[in-house]
Amino acid sequence: MSIIKMTNMALFGKRVLIRSDLNVPVKDGKVTSDARITASMATIEFALKAGARVMVTSHLDARKKAFIPRKTRSTGCQHHRHKLGKRCA
């Protein structure tokens, strides 16, 4: 089976959906380690520089909690936005 690499594709004008593991530890409303966000940046920046419209999706690991407040979910998103300098929803 051959693997199609993003670096071999013409991305200009395309919509690119990137599923990334962005579960980050959050304590007192602050991200305590952004290692996973930093690791995903190269792929996201490559797609943006190639002219793609990029959407990044992830999830929060809710195995330890039955409910994750919206503020906690948005903390990782806002941290990602700060590093990337782009809008985050």
The residue ranges in which pLDDT falls below 50 over 5 or more consecutive positions are: none
Largest sheet: 2 strands, parallel
Strand content: 15-25%
The average pLDDT is 79
Helix segment count? 2
* Topology, number of strands: 4
Largest sheet strand order: 1-4
Description:
The protein has 89 residues and is α+β, with helices and mostly antiparallel strands. Helices cover 34% and strands 16% of the residues. It contains two helices and four strands, in the order βββαβα. The protein has helices spanning 35-49, 70-84, and strands at 15-19, 26-27, 30-31, 53-57. The strands form two sheets. The chain has a two-stranded parallel sheet. A two-stranded antiparallel sheet has the order 2-3. Helix 1 (35-49) packs across helix 2. It is globular. The N and C termini lie far apart (36 Å). The model has no long low-confidence stretch (mean pLDDT 79).
What's this model, at a glance?
The protein is α+β, with helices and mostly antiparallel strands and 89 residues long. 34% of the residues lie in helices and 16% in strands.
List the helices and strands and how they pair.
Layout: E1 15-19, E2 26-27, E3 30-31, H1 35-49, E4 53-57, H2 70-84
Parallel strand pairs: 1-4
Antiparallel strand pairs: 2-3
Helix pairs in contact: 1-2
